[in-house]
Amino acid sequence: MRFLIFFLSLTTSLLPAFTFAKNSRHALKVKSEPTTAHHHKKSTKKGTVGTESEFTNFVQWKSVTEFIDHMHEQHGFELHELATLFSNASYLEKVVKLINPPAAGKSKNWTAYRQRFHEPVRVRSGLLFWDKYETELRRAQSEFGIPPEIIVGILGVETIYGRSQGTIRVVDALTTLGFAYPETGNRETRMRYFRQELEQVLLYARENNLDPLSLSGSFAGAIGLPQFMPGSIRRYAVDFDGDGRIDLRNSPADAIGSVASFLTHHGWTNDLPLTYPVTVDKTTEDQWKPLIGVVLAATHTMDELRRAGITSPLDIPPDLLVGLIDLEDGNHPTQYWVGSENFFAITKYNRSFYYAMAVIELGNAIKSRRQP
Question: Which residue from 72, 216, 242, 335 puts its CA 20 to 30 A from 115's CA?
């Protein structure tokens, strides 16, 4: 049975903590038809976590009431608690602007990208982090097979070891993107994704006895030191400090173990090399260029790539599965590499060759400074 929800005009200051009972024995049944709204009303109201917000009566949106019905029917959430929650969710124009893809025509620049992350603050902070949590990093390597420099590289690129976790309320970000995503060719697909993440964050909050409005993160809804999306928290995060709960915002140990768990679930193999530099034969470009970025996976042997005109100064096992990587570099020549399945495991964290290479280089730079 489908339930229609009316707007509850409660002020934020009078809100009780959201407990989200698992069994809805006293469901709120209201027959009034909610108004469908596709535009927001502008207001001077400030967001609670350091960002401009605009008042939007999300509970009057047909798509939101359908989502509330889904959460009630599938997961037993109380209707009145969800109505209260969404009546206090803010539309964030800043989030809509940030999620838009960059303007077309802007060339990629590996050198500039690399400099954003391979810089003194992250290296110094990484050394301190590694020294402080060496025991946890070694245990993660023992249990999951992930080298410390990869975990340290990811946490450094993501949040500078927790320094920049984001200050946007996750519910605001995911509600905005789930129901008011900007007009793009993939709008419906992206809205489905963010609604799924909104569902996941509400489940995560209930499972951990958290007020969902207390969770802050990135403009896309990522949370904690490793910037996990809520679904990834529920699927891959681990309680690595043994305190009985998963806390990626305040527990570096949980962040370390969770990054290792994520990579293991995405194909990391112990002791597999990451990347090799290669040279391409421009005269056979029609053979090797179609191999770039078709899938984020290592699907070709080096012998296959050699036949397409790819060579390397290093001794790469001929049967090693690799993928071809291109790093465009502004006005400089494009750099070409091949990556193993471990390289592509990092791209599952962020679907970018540039991101994975930045993680590797930052981690190696920190590791080299620890050597005697």
Answer: 216
CB 203 within 8 Å of CB 75 = yes
On whether the CB atoms of residues 274 and 339 are closer than 8 A, the answer is yes
Number of Cβ within 10 Å of residue 286's Cβ equals 9
String of b and e for 111-148 (b: at least 16 CB within 10 Å)?
eebbeebbeeebbebbbebbeebeebbebbbeebbbbb
CA distances, 154 to each of 141, 321, 357 (Å): 15, 24, 11
Between CA 67 and CA 61 the distance in angstroms is 10
Task: Provide the residue type at 146 as one letter.
Answer: I
Contacts of 336 (CB under 8 A, 6+ apart): 277, 278, 279, 280, 310, 324, 325, 326, 327
Residues 6+ apart with CB under 8 A from 119: none
- pLDDT of residue 300 exceeding 80: yes
**What burial class does residue 36 get, using C-beta atoms within 10 Å of its C-beta: 0-12 exposed, 13-18 middle, 19+ buried?**
exposed
Pairing of strands 279-280, 310-311: antiparallel
Indicate which residues carry an active-site annotation: 158
pTM: 0.85
**Per-position DSSP letters for 45-114, written without gaps between them:** PBPTTSSB-B---GGG-HHHHHHHHHHHHHH---HHHHHHHHHT--B-HHHHHHHSPPPTTPPPBHHHHH
Taking only the tens place, the pLDDT of each residue in 22-40 is 433 333 333 333 333 334 4
Q: Kindly report, residue by residue over 1-30, the tens digit of the pLDDT.
A: 454 544 443 333 334 444 454 433 333 333
Is the torsion defined by CA of 240, 241, 246, 252 positive or negative? Answer: negative
Strands 332-339 and 321-329: antiparallel
SS3 of 336, please? strand
Question: Sign of the C-alpha dihedral, residues 46, 50, 53, 58?
Answer: negative
